Amino acid sequence: MNNIIDRRMSKQVQVDKIRIGGDAPIVVQAMTNTDTADADATVRQIMDLASAGAEMVRITVNNDEAAAKVAIIRDRLDQKNIDIPLVGDFHFNGHRLLSTYSDCAQALSKYRINPGNVGKGAKRDEQFCRMIEIACKFNKPVRIGVNWGSLDPALMARMMDENAKFPQPKTAAEVMRESLIVSALENAARAVEIGLPANKIVLSAKVSSVQDLIAVYSQLAQRCEYPLHLGLTEAGMGSKGIVASSVALGVLLQQGIGDTIRISLTPEPNGDRTKEAVVAQQILQSLGLRTFTPTVIACPGCGRTTSTFFQELASQIETYLRTQTPVWRRTFPGVEEMHVAVMGCVVNGPGESKLANIGISLPGSGEHPSAPVYIDGVRALTLKGDSIAESFKQLVDAYVAS
Ligand code: SF4
């Protein structure tokens, strides 16, 4: 579908069945927030994320209890035919956990290593080496994921010292951005030196400010050929997190930068974790980079819509299409390209409905209580009465089947 955006070419990394970079579609990732030691809850959430559209799921592997459950989680997913790749997120003790739990090292499809949280002093290189050696031994790709919040302090100090020697030193923010990039590149080079093939490395350099993220990734993209994982870290809650992530990633993706994305939303307490996968899909689909579900065109409604029926129908249809698409796709490939219009009145209703594959124009206030349905641009029939919603769903089903 992408004929507008020229993607930056990168080396391609294979992560089980998923390809990242090169000419591969941009991959949607998500991360669990369950305690990985609670295998039941983690398997449930991975399945929910997969159903919502995540193509790769990261789980934290933060202690012995978690590491001991990783292979069990993988087995349970395999038993349910969920072949989604699992990425292990390691900090501080990854070298020890990967060395101790070889079934965990084997069961994971990819390791995420944060170079800022690997260790201090001489231990740092030794522990980083250990993790890379294990990745080589088990033939696993690695994401070297640096983060503004956990930048290697020794590297930062070195960069500050070097900067102070310049006649026109950079600002502290510029040094920090450069330090992130250097940390990602130097650690990737070290991994290659240890023996990890370059086509097993993905990079990320996450920050929480939109402008900094755009600046960092724009430079990183020019300075290497590794595939890049994009994400605005700690994007925040609710609409703020969604908007900030969409703006930041939208700018980068439009420039062809980014091979895999994750939207880091803070869920409400007991909130729905799957939203991050849905938002990631919507960003890619909005840019025309991928198509996951049929597009619903719905007007915002206004004083001409006097009941909540219009909003309810639009929401029902949107949910119905999203949940049905994976089922439909098996029999009707290309169904995700479909456009469905649900419009609030005759002002724009007939026009938008005619442009969609199938559309309905609901009666606004004072209009005749009937809802014309347009199929392939032609007024096909009129729905009336209490069963408009159900009848329209049946028409959508019939359209897909035809
Ligand atoms: Fe309002 Fe009708 Fe426009 Fe919808 S189509 S926003 S109901 S005027």
Automatic annotation (TrEMBL):
Q: Which UniProt keywords apply?
A: 4Fe-4S, Iron, Iron-sulfur, Isoprene biosynthesis, Metal-binding, Oxidoreductase
Where's the IspG TIM-barrel domain?
11-276
What residues form the membrane-spanning segments? none
Biological processes, Gene Ontology terms: isopentenyl diphosphate biosynthetic process, methylerythritol 4-phosphate pathway; terpenoid biosynthetic process
- Cofactor descriptive note: Binds 1 [4Fe-4S] cluster.
Q: Please list the cofactors this protein needs.
A: [4Fe-4S] cluster
Q: In which pathway does it act?
A: Isoprenoid biosynthesis; isopentenyl diphosphate biosynthesis via DXP pathway; isopentenyl diphosphate from 1-deoxy-D-xylulose 5-phosphate: step 5/6
What reactions does this protein catalyze?
(2E)-4-hydroxy-3-methylbut-2-enyl diphosphate + oxidized [flavodoxin] + H2O + 2 H(+) = 2-C-methyl-D-erythritol 2,4-cyclic diphosphate + reduced [flavodoxin]
User: Which E.C. number(s) belong to this protein?
Assistant: 1.17.7.3
UniProt xrefs under Pfam families: GcpE (PF04551), GcpE_C (PF26540)
The UniProt record gives the binding positions of [4Fe-4S] cluster as C299, C302, C345, E352
| GO function term, MF aspect, one | 4-hydroxy-3-methylbut-2-enyl-diphosphate synthase activity (flavodoxin)
Q: Give start and end of each IspG C-terminal domain.
A: 296-397
Q: What class of enzyme is it?
A: oxidoreductase
Q: Which family does it belong to?
A: Belongs to the IspG family.
State what this protein does.
Converts 2C-methyl-D-erythritol 2,4-cyclodiphosphate (ME-2,4cPP) into 1-hydroxy-2-methyl-2-(E)-butenyl 4-diphosphate.
Q: Which NCBIfam families match?
A: ispG_gcpE, PRK00366.1
What is this protein identified as? 4-hydroxy-3-methylbut-2-en-1-yl diphosphate synthase (flavodoxin)
Taxonomy, top ranks, is: Bacteria, Pseudomonadati, Pseudomonadota, Betaproteobacteria, Burkholderiales
